[in-house]
Write a structure and sequence with these properties.
By secondary structure, the protein is of the alpha/beta class. Helices cover 22% and strands 36% of the residues. The chain has one domain: Rossmann fold (3-Layer(aba) Sandwich), CATH 3.40.50. A six-stranded mixed beta sheet has the order 4-3-2-5-6-7, with helices on both faces. A three-stranded antiparallel beta sheet has the order 1-9-8, with helices on one face. The radius of gyration is 16 Å and the shape is globular. The two termini are 13 Å apart. It binds inosinic acid and magnesium ion. The site of magnesium ion has 5 residues, from strand 5.
Length: 172
């Protein structure tokens, strides 16, 4: 059985927004190199598209985490399933995420990464659900603020499906 999916943010709007964020990052870090960190798997589509829109030197690394807790409610205690390959020492690091919901996962992750000596540490997310926030996290770059709805596409999944949709959708 397939789910009916309603478009929340069309592909053109997502692409335009990513270009906008890429321009902003290129400007903010002019003359520097940025080190993008993707939190797998959700962040991968956004990070690849974003990297293509950044006009300054970019390096990339990937990590996978699982948060203890139920599917719907993350506990905020993060277990690293796959760690980064490279050190963060002295780098201008930008963590690239698909969505910030309660903020629990990210606030814990940022704490861990901060201890690894980056020159700077920023956070960039394609989507933000501010109504759901429980943990204060400073988000430097936000694509879209969205209402408290469960969304899929552009890396976001429902039961591992729909990550490949080129738009942001809501399951009806
Ligand atoms: P939190 O900010 O710690 O609550 O968890 C954020 C994570 O929950 C994200 O990285 C997603 O993997 C997942 N998540 C939160 N909201 C959604 C959604 O609407 N669709 C798909 N995954 C979501
Ligand atoms: Mg995620």
């Amino acid at each position: 059985m397939s789910d009916k999916i309603e478009v929340l943010i069309p592909e053109e709007d997502v692409d335009a927004k990513i270009k906008e964020i890429g321009d902003k990052i290129s400007e903010d870090y002019a003359g520097k190199q940025v080190h993008l960190i993707c939190v797998l798997k959700g962040g991968v589509f956004f990070m690849c598209e974003l990297a293509k829109r950044i006009a300054i030197p970019v390096s990339m690394d990937f990590m996978a985490v699982s948060s203890y807790g139920s599917e719907k409610q993350s506990s905020g205690v993060v277990k690293i399933i796959k760690d980064l390959d490279e050190s963060l020492e002295g780098k201008e690091v930008i963590v690239v995420e698909d969505i910030i919901d309660s903020g629990r996962t990210l606030s814990y992750l940022l704490e861990i990464l901060n201890k690894r000596g980056p020159k700077s540490l920023s956070l960039c997310t394609l989507l933000d659900k501010p109504d759901r926030r429980e943990k204060d996290v400073r988000v430097d770059y936000v694509g879209f603020e969205i209402p408290d709805k469960f969304v899929v596409g552009y890396g976001l999944d429902y039961d591992q499906k729909y990550r490949n949709l080129p738009f942001i959708g809501v399951i009806e």
